[in-house]
Write the structure tokens for this entry.
Amino acid sequence: MPGRTVLIVEDEVLIAMSLEDDVRHMGLVPLSTPHLDEALLLAEDKSLVAAVLDVKLRDLTSEGVAALLRQRGIPFVVSTGSGTSLQGTSFDGAPMLTKPYPGRELRALLAQFVPTAEPIET
């Protein structure tokens, strides 16, 4: 679906499934992967309007994906299991959610990025 896709880069299966549900409930289309190499390819998708990036993917980070999205002008939310400072990285300045976080917080941020999306309360 053009112009309605949200990239989700998350390596924890249950969290990824929950994010996909949140995105779908907003009338958006999730495009999800736990793999960095695939995420870099998906970040080129022309229908992307936003992304949710887990900072740490096993022993790697999704910083390269953040840099590519920034270059393309695609807004993203950073999801992290730690409150580590991301200053001076490609994540710097992006809204950050520390796990665990309520789905309504993510939906509210995505609604700012995609004005036609509905931040459904649950």
User: Anything to note?
Assistant: The longest strand covers residues 48-54. The domain at 5-113 is CATH 3.40.50.2300 (Rossmann fold).
